Amino acid sequence: MTYKIDYRDGTVLEWSLTDDGTTVTRNDSYTPTIYVSVHGGDLTEAAAYLRNHPQVEATQQVEEQVGFRHDPTTVLRVDVADLDAVTNVANEVRGWGSPGDYRLYNVDFSREYRYCLEAGVDPTPTQRPSVLRLAVDEAELASPPITEIKVGDKLLSGVPDDVLTGVREQIQEDDPDVLQVSSSELIPRLFEQADQYDISEFALGRLPGYQTLAGESTYESYGQVGHSPARYNVPGRVIIDESNTFFWDQTNLDGCLDLVSRSHKPLQELAWSSIGNVLTAIQIREARSRGVLVPWHSWRHEQFKTMRQLHAADRGGFTFTPEVGLHEDVHELDFSSLFPNIIVTRNVSPDKIRCDCHADRDDVPGLGYSICDERGYLPDVLEPLIADRDAIKEELEDTKDPDRQAALEGQSNAIKWILVSCFGYQGFSNAKFGRIECHEAINAFAREILLDSKAVFEANGWRVVHGIVDSIWVTPVDGAEQTPLDELAAQITEDVGIRLEYEAEYDWIAFVPRADSDAGALTKYFGKVAGVDEYKYRGIECRQRSTPTYIEDAQRELIEALDETRDPEAVCERLRTMIDRLERGAIDPTRLVVNNRVSKSLDEYTQNTRNVAALKRADGKGLTRRPGQNVSYVVVDDEKSSRDRVVLKSEEPSEYDGPFYRDQLIQAAESILSPIGWHERRIERYLSSHTECSLESFS
């Protein structure tokens, strides 16, 4: 079955994996299709013009639904000459008449996905694809020619033409279906080097050459700046760029292939796609199965709301402020896939929320929204995902085969990420089929569920110490009789219609205060799981991406010390040992690397921060960092404001700024001790009152 699709010179190449190897099928007749609906112009006139357009192959009036809430209507089907013509023709039509007179559909599909959708091709391979990894050091990539590269398990080094010959021969020998590259830039660099050294038969694909699919770009999502590297293609082989693949990184090959089968986005496209992009592809398949077209630009208006509805709707999921402190005998319970299950069990769907046929009903608690009795499309999209993940989790509990376990975990994680995004995507302004009223309704149901659950626990001898959206933490009330938690979970599950699962028992759990007040931080806590040698960490430094490894390990060790002693002074003694080793220069600088994301280009910064110093050093070495990319460095002299303030990780630093990292250690220790009342000043006061060094610090 097809697993890779190439578009070359107007011909589509379908590559398939079989028992006998790889086969290719050519399709010379494929033409992409878009649709036009008219809301103020003339459909016949539009058809006559487009029929003679040089980039249009054919036009036809057909009956289609332009939305889930619409009956079939006459629209214009336009078969354009090739993929490059799709956007050209669509932009031309969009400019006709007044805004909204001519609306377009099925325009902005990614190219391989479009072919699968229109040609009815399932890109899920029937054979497991073979993978070969190509990796090169970043500094080597920045200073051509490439003289050292790792191909699979082999390290190839030497003069440039010998390296290229070795790469070509290894690829020919392994004949991989997937090339996993450390950076997409490796592809053009190798071909440029082949041209420079006159190696005419160099190839990475199953046919000569490569294509540039998209240039690099910077984007912003939910306040975070991201960077998308350039994307390249070689014929007959899937390219996986390690620097630009969420699903490959968060799951594995099995997880990616599971999503390929659900979305019909081929493996290469799925690898670089975002969660929302894959969810949209799954939704588009469902829409097309129902005869609904996919709008190019969303023009859904938000329905009228009263001031009371606006006030009630403008709220998120419910949270209970955690009780700051260290609590013993705590139990955590979670609702299984709460938001997706609310969608399925309450029929929350863009095509059914606030329906005209039940406008007098108050189905959504506190908002006065109605929900149609007729099944919506979104529950039909999500219910198979929920059911399949439950089945996968059940099989995981039973299987002992490590290979099968890895496959199931990959599939489970892949589905989890899709389910996680389905709620937020309803409120995303550019979502193809989202609707803000769905977003508001899901939150309203979630608030009611959590509040009702809290009441049940409190009526049965349990005190809620924290609760956030779909999770709740309880501890026994002293002197009260407790109903067993499994009975309460079963009762709530039956009442709510969504499974409440017992997640964990903690010997103790500590909720951390906010940095600017004594109130509890909603997502910062840590605790000791009962019955096993395991701790849970959320939101504190050891879970933050920028934290150096040494600080991360130190914080975990301090938590163990707190568990062993329940004594802040004993924790500070352990901290003193760490500080002693740090100040003596006994820590390997590679364990002190700071990893930070770049939020803007170098010339846009106005302050001489550590990041700016690192960016200046990187730029001077040809390792330019763009917004959205990461920069990794060790702080060597924090008193300076120049580029000498830091040393890049790639420069293999041999020293570090002890006082800077001491402050980092103190901050990590404060997160551990602040729940029991020890903040930075008290920690420093204790450390300064005891000056002797322990023998352990010299080990």
UniProtKB/TrEMBL annotation:
Tree of life domain: Archaea
Domain DNA-directed DNA polymerase family B multifunctional: 285-675
GO biological process: DNA-templated DNA replication
Gene3D superfamilies membership: DNA polymerase family B, C-terminal domain, Helix hairpin bin, Palm domain of DNA polymerase
Entries under InterPro entries matching the protein: DNA-dir_DNA_pol_B (IPR006172), DNA-dir_DNA_pol_B_multi_dom (IPR006134), DNA/RNA_pol_sf (IPR043502), DNA_pol_B_thumb (IPR042087), DNA_pol_palm_dom_sf (IPR023211), DNA_pol_type-B (IPR050240), RNaseH-like_sf (IPR012337)
SUPFAM superfamilies: DNA/RNA polymerases, Ribonuclease H-like
Documented EC number(s): 2.7.7.7
Catalytically driven reaction(s): DNA(n) + a 2'-deoxyribonucleoside 5'-triphosphate = DNA(n+1) + diphosphate
Alphabetized UniProt keyword annotations: DNA-binding, DNA-directed DNA polymerase, Nucleotidyltransferase, Transferase
Pfam family of the protein (one): DNA_pol_B
An example molecular function term from Gene Ontology annotations: nucleotide binding
Family, as annotated: Belongs to the DNA polymerase type-B family.
Protein name per Swiss-Prot or TrEMBL: DNA-directed DNA polymerase
